[in-house]
Every structure is written in structure tokens, then in C-alpha cells.
Design brief:
Number of helices: 4
CATH topology: Beta-lactamase Inhibitory Protein, Chain:B, domain 1
CATH architecture: 2-Layer Sandwich
Number of strands: 4
Largest sheet: 4 strands, antiparallel
Order of helices and strands: HEEEEHHH
Strand order of the largest sheet: 1-2-3-4
Number of domains: 1
Helix content: 25-40%
Radius of gyration: 17 Å
Shape: globular
Structural class: alpha+beta
Distance between the termini: 44 Å
């Protein structure tokens, strides 16, 4: 992240450093999302542990310049609070990020989907 700067780095610089983004979305500005996730087997019984869960969210303006950087690690995602009171324009922009981060938070809390399977089985 130290190699990129707001209002200086452009899309070519970002791709050269990080490669293609994991997810791209367009709003007023383009939003590029990079995901770093590492899961390891901790025991020979097949238990898996989430080691790294980082998300880098970059906003690119209409000129192709980096306009905003947000970085979330596993602790940040567990602390996120979402506000339901938003304006219509901000809601559309926040909706994608809200859905994405909610999905990531669910994966952090239950990386193998064990809780979901238990609910479906009625346990």
C-alpha cells in the first residue's frame, strides 16, 4: 500500500503493483477491491483456521487516478457498524460495499459454512 498514493497513482500503476482486482464495481467512481485470504489446516482432524483476511478497497476517479484508499483487516471487519439511515444516492453506493463486507464478515465468523449447514439440518 505504501507504493500507491491518492491523486498520484493511476490505474496502470495499481495494476502493475497489485495485479487485476478481485472485484470491480462502478458508481460515481470505480471501486476496485483486492482480497487476501489465507486458511490453514491446524490439526490432522481437518479443522481449518483463518489466518489472514485483508481487504483493500480503492476508489478510482473518472480520470483514472486513485481518489480513496480503505484497508480492512480481520479485526476491522468484526468492528464494522452499519447505519441504515442513508440518502438514496449514498445508499446505492454503500449497498455494494455493505453487501460485500457483510459477506466477508460471515465468512470470517464461519469460514467453512458449518453454522449454515447445522441450521439447514435443524440442529
Amino acid at each position: 500500500m505504501k507504493k500507491i498514493q491518492v491523486n498520484t497513482s493511476n490505474t496502470n500503476d495499481i495494476i502493475k503493483i497489485f495485479g487485476e482486482p478481485s472485484t470491480v464495481s462502478s458508481f460515481d467512481n470505480d471501486v476496485w477491491i483486492y482480497i487476501e485470504r489465507k486458511i490453514t489446516n491446524t490439526h490432522f482432524f481437518g479443522k481449518r483456521e483463518l489466518v489472514t483476511n485483508n481487504v483493500l478497497v480503492l476508489e478510482i476517479d473518472q480520470y483514472g487516478l486513485l481518489s480513496k484508499i480503505d484497508f480492512y483487516n480481520i479485526d476491522d471487519m468484526n468492528k464494522l457498524k452499519f447505519d441504515d439511515d442513508t440518502t438514496e444516492i449514498a445508499y446505492k453506493k454503500r449497498n455494494f460495499i455493505y453487501d460485500f463486507l457483510s459477506s466477508m464478515r460471515q465468512k470470517v465468523n464461519d469460514p467453512l459454512g458449518v453454522r449454515k449447514k447445522r441450521r439447514e439440518q435443524g440442529q
